[in-house]
Design a protein that fits this description.
Layout (H helix, E strand, L loop, with lengths): L4 H4 L7 H12 L5 E2 L11 H11 L14 H15 L9 E4 L2 H12 L5 E6 L4 H8 L3 E6 L15 H6 E6 L12 H14 L2 E5 L25 E6 L12 E5 L1 H14 L5 H12 L4 H22 L12 E5 L7 H12 L1 E2 L1 E2 L10 E5 L4 H15 L6
Parallel strand pairs: 1-10, 3-4, 3-5, 5-6, 6-7
Antiparallel strand pairs: 2-8, 7-8, 9-12, 11-12
Helix pairs in contact: 2-12, 3-10, 4-10, 5-6, 5-9, 11-13
The chain binds pyridoxal-5'-phosphate.
Length: 392
């Protein structure tokens, strides 16, 4: 059997070496604690589960949904953007619900990329931008992010040839993996750059509502004229601890939203309607859910930062996202080696920054989604390791 090139070309699982070490440790009886995955440990709020249960009993919800979602869900998304970001959206032309934002991110290149076209992706970055582009037959050109720039891309350094062939510029703030945030002047510059080069900005706002210390994340659509060149992905996954329900949205430029809807109509049959009803309940009645979750993540963030500093890592507390991104101590070169040594000595798993691109080398990422008792045990071990004591 011959597999297609697009599958053969999939990069090897970058976490493979660490996974092997984890398996060895577990086989040896070590209680491994993973701080690797960004998947909220807290449950979906009970009032939303009750809404889902009620909706599941309605036979109208037992049939195929529409790919472009329930009109009332699209209207709830538009209201959400108005309340959260002061952005007015036409629910019929500027909104499409998604089966998780990953689905839309993966499918967007099918709308905009022909063979030979380029996606500009940031390095480090969420891997799906690159894979979706490759599946569509396009090329990716990486734009390195640097700590001294606050992990924002230098748009004026994008080579002219890449800018000419580019169809999509991917941005993601609050950022995975760096935890960086972007202010409105940055988004204004990005929109101006995209207009000048006739490139669509795909802004990934998956971490819109995981914010700390009173910070509020911006929608790129807050910028005047942004909807002429930009679409934005947003998700209920992290805001409402709903990663398991797969419900999200793309909003913005009507032509791109229409193209994405047409691609989806041909590939999927939409989000189960009971889940859409739960999502409407979340957006229309968020209660204090997000604040309560964020208070828990913020307290974890502060404990993590202080232990990482004791380990000699350089780290600034992030204003948003589920991640602490920390620079290895001077003299340490390989994030994979460092993560491997931590597992060996403490049984604690962190993600090597190089997993997100070569510009992530020299850093590690720690997720804040481990239950408090397990996180505290992991931090106890890391602190013991920092003091040169036996950790396990
Ligand atoms: C940057 C980023 N974008 C998008 C997603 C996908 O989120 P979902 O598909 O659950 O909406 C993730 C998931 O971790 C992410 O880190």
């Amino acid at each position: 059997m011959k597999l297609a090139q697009r599958v053969e070309q999939l990069p090897p699982y970058l976490f493979a070496r660490i996974s092997e070490l984890i398996a060895q440790k577990r086989a040896a009886g070590v209680d491994v604690i993973s701080l690797g995955i960004g998947d909220p440990d807290l449950p979906t709020p009970g009032y939303l589960i009750e809404r889902l249960q009620r909706a599941a009993e309605d036979p109208a919800n037992h049939r195929y949904p529409e790919s472009d979602g329930l009109p009332q869900f699209r209207r709830a998304i538009a209201r959400w953007y108005q309340t959260r970001h002061g952005v007015e959206l036409d629910p019929d032309s500027e909104v499409v619900p998604l089966i998780g934002s990953k689905e839309g991110i993966g499918h967007l290149p099918l709308c905009l990329i022909d063979p030979g076209d380029v996606s500009l992706i940031t390095d480090p970055g969420y891997p799906v931008y690159e894979i979706g582009t490759m599946f569509a037959g396009g090329e990716t050109v990486k734009v390195s992010l640097r700590e001294e720039d606050g992990w924002l891309p230098r748009l004026d350094e994008i080579p002219a040839d890449a800018a000419r062939r580019a169809r999509i510029l991917w941005l993601n703030y609050p950022n995975n993996p760096t935890g960086a945030v972007a202010d409105l002047p940055f988004f204004e510059r990005a929109v101006a750059w995209a207009r000048e080069h006739d490139v669509v900005i795909a802004h990934d706002l998956a971490y819109a509502d995981v914010t700390f210390d009173g910070y509020q994340a911006h929608s790129i659509l807050e910028v005047d004229g942004a909807r002429e060149v930009a679409i934005e992905f947003n998700s209920l996954s992290k805001a409402f601890n709903m990663t398991g329900w797969r419900v999200a949205m793309a909003v913005g430029n009507a032509r791109v939203i229409n193209a994405l809807t047409r691609v989806k109509t041909n590939l999927d049959s939409g989000i189960p309607q009971a889940i859409q009803e739960m999502a409407i309940a979340a957006l229309d009645d968020p209660r204090d859910t997000m604040d309560a979750h964020n208070a828990i993540y913020q307290a974890r963030r502060d404990r993590v930062v202080s232990v990482l500093r004791a380990l000699g890592l350089r780290v600034e507390p992030p204003k948003a996202s589920l991640y602490v991104w920390a620079r290895l101590p001077d003299g340490e070169r390989s994030s994979g080696d460092f993560a491997g040594r931590l597992i060996d000595a403490t049984g604690v798993v962190v993600t090597p920054g190089a997993s997100y691109g070569s510009a992530g080398e020299g850093y590690i990422r720690i997720s804040l989604t481990t239950p408090d008792d397990r996180l505290d045990e992991a931090l106890r071990r890391l602190a013991a390791f920092a003091r040169g004591e036996q950790a396990l």
